[in-house]
Structures are given as C-alpha cells and as structure tokens.
Design a protein that fits this description.
By secondary structure, the protein is mainly beta. Helix content is 11%, strand content 37%.
Length: 388
C-alpha cells in the first residue's frame, strides 16, 4: 500500500507548523513535502561489519532504514453537521524497532510521547510500504518517551536496532539521524541526515507538551524536521544513542539553523523496561510540594539561603516521617547543591524506592509560619518510597 504525493507548493506552508515555546523550540513531529521513495533495497550485512573508516553512513543507513517506521496516530471525531463519528489521523512521527516479542513474532517500537499523545488507535508504516496496527504499551510524558507494540512479523530486512551508550558520546563525533519527516500523504520516508554531536547535557531545552521533568538532551546539527520525532539518532557503529525529539528554530531576536535535540538512550533505557513491564513509569517521591526560593548563597541571620522551599508535607510520607515541615529550605541533597524544583527532581530521579537521601535543611519558621528566634540547620535522612 503506497501513499501518493500532494502539491509541492505546500512546502512553505508546512514549514510554519513547528511548535514553539519561549525560544520557539519545536517538536520534530508534523508535516513537510515530497514523494514516497521506492521500496528499500536488500539490507546490508550485520552490525559487525557496519563500521567503515572511510564512510560508515551508507551501510548504517542500509541496516537501519528498514527498522525506522512512520507512526500514525488516530482518534475518533464527531461531525456535528453530518452527525457521524469518524476516525481521523491526528498525529505523525517516527519510531524505531528496538526489541522483538518473546514469541519471535512482532516487537516493540520506541517513539515520543508527543507523537502518540491523545491518540486512540495507532498504525506503523515500514519503509517497504507495509502498514500494521499497533497498540500503545505505555508512555511517560515526563520524559516524552513512549513504546508501541506490533504483533506481526517485521518486513524482511527490519531487525531491532542495537542500543548504544549515550554516556560515551563525545562532542564532534559522527551523528546520523533517520526518520520520516512529513505527515499524511507528504512524507520523505527513510530520510537520512548526518552531522556531528554539537553538545551534550543541554538542559532546559523544551517545548509545549514535551518534558515536564528535567531531561538533559544531546544537541546535533544533523537536520531534524517535523516528522522526525521518535526516530533514530545513531553513532558511527550504527547503534541507537538517542531519540530525535525537537529543534530550535528561533528566539525573539535570533533565527537558528542546525539546532536539533535528542533524548539520550541511557535516559530512555530504564523507562523502556518499565513501560514494557508495567505499562507506566513509577517514581519514588519524598511527599512534598516545593517551590524555588531566591536568597543569598549562605544563610543570613534573618534571611534563608537560596534553595527549594517546602510548601506542604503530605501526611504519612517519607518527608513527614523525617520531621520535615512547611517553610523548611532544602539546600543540598546527598551533598549536591539544589536551587530549583528541577534540581531536586534531577537528583531524586537518580535513585529508587528504598534508597535514602541526606537533605540539608534550614528552618527559619515554625510549622505555622511564625519566625523562630534563631534559625536552625540540620541534616534529615529520608527514605524514598512509592506514594500513590
């Protein structure tokens, strides 16, 4: 089954569809233009011979392109005029085949949460034109990661892409992106772009509907366009090291080119396992509501230091059992300085339920908000727990 092309003049229109927030950072999942390429050629040899000192990209592309799919998200809509319910395609992106099912038929597709968000039914289209139904295994909006499952044999040449080690990446090394920019009938299937790793651990890069937890991203200059979301970022060995997720297009004063951002695969690995095993990501918590507190670096007699202020403590939670209370200021967690909610969450996300954290606390007020005659400083030990 093949998709036909629409008018080429839609290119300029579709470019304007990038989502933006603050710095106009947009998702890489939506619409562009062109004609469907011909069926994929035979896959090259296995990953043990993918690397070539001269140019590894052609063999990597031949191996991985058949394993990168277009994800089509649909939902039921109501037409008040015809008074009929119909199913419409509401979102498009890419996905990468990462694991087979235990029975050997079917497998799992890694993609972005924002590609499948608000969908009710899903399909995946492979490079050779094969279309399959897929089900949503689970999604984590905190890190913008989702996993789909398909239950038919993958097309010939499509095999799980091996996961690499994103912590081993270096700035300046080869970065290869494979995905399906476009939407609907206008898709550049199996597009391969290449560049370098431009930056690592980029923090605070987000867009409306993407991360609501701190995620340090990989910056690349390999072209990422609308529709690439959920596709593959590969290293020179053909290993999956990241998930293309968004690009920066403009700020209020600057036009940007070549600023794409990917979720590191090491960030995704544990989340993938949890989604496949449980259908969701369960994170331990302290049991507090907090806000950033602006103050001096060191405590003053009558003014708390900068840190994270506790606004509320849930009864019966680890924080309550450790004696924490509203108005306390958290300045360090296990010796690491924290200033914002994201700082606190970033540290907590490194630990599991049952782990203990040492919190440095400054207390200037009693639980009713009345100033203390003299501030107190102490260390509280809190054991992380899963809290419903």
């Amino acid at each position: 089954m093949r998709r036909q092309t629409m008018k080429k003049h839609s290119f300029l229109k579709q470019i304007s569809l990038f989502l933006a927030l603050a710095l106009c950072v947009g998702f890489a999942g939506g619409a562009l233009v062109t004609r469907r390429s011909e069926a994929v050629a035979e896959a090259a040899a296995g990953y043990d011979v993918v690397y070539s000192a001269e140019n590894p990209i052609p063999e990597i592309a031949a191996n991985v392109r058949p394993s990168v799919v277009q994800v089509i998200t649909s939902a039921a809509t109501w037409d008040g005029r015809s008074r009929e319910v119909s199913t419409e395609e509401i979102g498009y992106g890419s996905g990468t085949y990462i694991r087979t099912l235990e029975n050997g038929e079917g497998g799992y597709i890694l993609t972005n949460n924002h590609v499948v968000d608000e969908g009710e039914t899903y399909q995946i289209e492979w490079l050779d034109g094969t279309i399959m139904d897929a089900t949503l295994v689970g999604a984590d909006e905190g890190t913008d990661i989702a996993v789909l499952q398909f239950n038919e044999p993958a097309p010939e040449g499509a095999t799980p892409v091996p996961l690499g080690d994103s912590d081993a990446l270096q700035i300046g090394e080869l970065a290869i992106v494979i995905g399906n920019p476009g939407s609907g009938e206008e898709v550049l299937f199996g597009t391969v772009t290449a560049g370098i790793i431009s930056g690592l651990e980029r923090e605070g890069v987000t867009a409306q509907g993407s991360f609501n937890r701190p995620v340090s991203t990989i910056q690349v200059d390999a072209a990422i366009n609308t529709g690439n979301s959920g596709g593959a970022l590969l290293n020179a060995q053909g290993e999956l090291v990241g998930i293309p997720t968004l690009k920066m297009q403009a700020s209020y004063t600057t036009i940007y080119e070549g600023l794409g951002f990917c979720i590191p695969i090491n960030t995704a690995k544990d989340i993938i396992d949890q989604l496949i095993e449980h259908g969701e990501v369960v994170r331990p918590r302290l049991g507090v509501t907090v806000s950033a507190w602006d103050g001096p670096e060191d405590p003053m007699r009558n003014y708390p230091p900068a840190g994270v202020r506790i606004e509320n403590v849930e009864e019966g939670t680890p924080a309550d059992e450790a004696g924490l209370q509203a108005y306390d200021i958290i300045t360090e967690v296990n010796g690491e300085r924290v200033y914002t909610n994201n700082d606190l969450i970033s540290v907590i996300d490194q630990f599991s339920a049952g782990d203990s954290l040492e919190l440095t606390i400054y207390r200037y007020y009693d639980e009713n908000g009345r100033p203390l005659p003299q501030y107190e400083s102490f260390t509280a030990t809190v054991e992380l727990q899963i809290i419903d």
